Every structure is written in C-alpha cells, then in structure tokens.
Amino acid sequence: MDFLKVFGWLLLSVGIIIIIWTLYSSYNIFTGQTDMPEIFSSSAESYRGPAEAFGEGGEISTQMQEMLGEQLKEFIPMNTLPKMLNLSIWTMLAGLLIFGGSQISNLGIKLIKK
Hints:
Radius of gyration: 24 Å
Shape: rod-shaped
Mean pLDDT: 83
Low-confidence stretches: none
Oligomer: single chain
Largest sheet: none
Strand content: under 5%
Structural class: mainly alpha
C-alpha cells in the first residue's frame, strides 16, 4: 500500500467519525440527555420591563405597558427565545460539521481510488 491510500483511508475514517459524532451529539441535545451549547442566555437581571425599555410616559402608559408585559410573559415564556436561538445555532453548526465531514470523506475516497 502506498502512502496516498493509507492517508485516504485515514481521511475517510476521520470524516465518518465527525459525521457520527455530530449526529450523536444532536440526538442527545434534542432528546434532552445533554445540555445544548449556550450562546444566547436569558437572565432575570438583564430583563428590562416594558416601562424601562420604552421610557417613562404617563401613569396610564406605564400601567398599559406593564399589563402588556405580563400578558406577553404568560403567552411566551421568558427563556423561549434564547432556547430557540441556541437550537438554531446548534443546527447550523451541526450542518456545517456534517458538510465538512462529508468533504473530508470524499477527499479520502478520491485518494483511495488513485
């Protein structure tokens, strides 16, 4: 066996390992067995209520903003948006890793055929 074929088999193996690891990690994240990477976080300290976000108006305006904020909290939980953003980022990263793994595997296959 020459060096290119051995290197091709190595690249093929590395590409397949990257793809399998990405799929396994995605499965664990989406089934809740492991925590997802947290790029966007939500904390109660960083949350500004509607009155602080839009500036102080009159008393009626402040009360309306607080009522609207409370209704939105009941409709959409506070940490829903960061979770969706984190899942979206992980999905894009997993797609990039799978694409990269397939390209590495294809390069390995081409070296094996030579």
